[in-house]
Fold this protein.
Amino acid sequence: MRATPADLVITGCTALVHDEEEQVGFRQDAAIVVRDRVIESVTSAAAVRDLPALQRIEAYGQVAMPGLINCHTHAPMVALRGLAEDLPTEEWFNDVVWPVESNLTADDVELGARLACAEMIRGGVTCFADHYFHMDAVAAVVAECGLRAHLGEAYFSSQGPEGRERSAEFALRHRATADGRITTALAPHAPYTVTGTDLTATAELARAHHLPVHIHAAENRDQTDTSLARHGLTPIEVLDRAGLLETDLLIAHGTGIVARDLPLLAGTGGRTAVATAPRGYLKFAWPTTTPVRALRAAGVPVGLATDGAASNNSLDVWESMALTSLIQKSTEGDPRWLTSRQALHHATLQSARAVRLGDRVGTLAPGRRADIVLVDLTGPHTQPVHDLAATLVHSARSSDVRTTVVDGRVLMRDRQLLTLDLPAVVQELGRRLPALTDRSHGRRIQEYDT
């Protein structure tokens, strides 16, 4: 090991690692050496005792693990948290959310993004896939606060060709920015709000410019039934007809994916991924959830997500991990399915693959970007530890994250945010809320009709 100073050394922790077969394991009394934004080694604490470092974190009693990835969200929607409660999906969209979103300005989106990024940093999220409007503002916040993000400018066909063109222009202009921490995608909203012509054009743009696509599809069973009635095709078959299954595709939710869709998804060879956000499905009383077991059998990566806080009330991926495990056990009627170690695999490597970052993040290994969180397990709710994986999934909470590191930069240490002024954000957002939440104008950005 070189004697020149490392940028960061984390020592004395228990490290969550993956073996050659991607099985989750734990290395005790470990140390992580970071140099030039990359993990140089995962070694023993004894091996780095005398290694000089520009920054050193003693992490005894803590678990070091890859940062969590929120594979599908609408980060600025934290400004609408709790605004539309206890409503069916159609009323939620048409009576509250889409009328309010017609008021959105770039300043509103920026403030929402700041609040969301603060929440995610505090919850151990180091990367998020965002699908929203005024995304230049979100990209600026990401560049400033230090998170990693996969960003797409959402569009509806009702916006005309300009919507699709804006989405493509944003993706081309911002990809590989923020020192490479920002990746981008084309972001059509959904098959029920984007025409087949626009979906086909999006697939052509994706292939021409080597861009991935991030879209809502088969969000619930009603959407699948309506699509079958209108088109004779499921939403997944609509995407296939448009050529989108030939692109690197991230599908949000997929609780309406049915058996006839699985061969199509399997045929993509892992290029299609699905993001599951189970809390919202419970809240909307949807009868089904993301068919994780069937998707995994088809070779489809399934990443963890929260959706926007307007429907989920939270950007807590830790909660999504626990709920995914529990709901899958209940849905499958099998307590042996989606074990804690399997849930951690979804939270790490599979989530990284879902956002096309499987070669950069998702595991603590030499050559990977240094996206690391430290989780304190000394609290009474995490003791004693009989099964460390189960403790992380079912006992630990997002508030147990002590330190968050992205690309080797410490964004939070000992629960103190270092790159965002949270009180100032909350104060300014509060000032803007009356104008943002006004619905007296009678406008809405779109009509939900599925």
In short: The two ends are 60 Å apart (CA to CA).
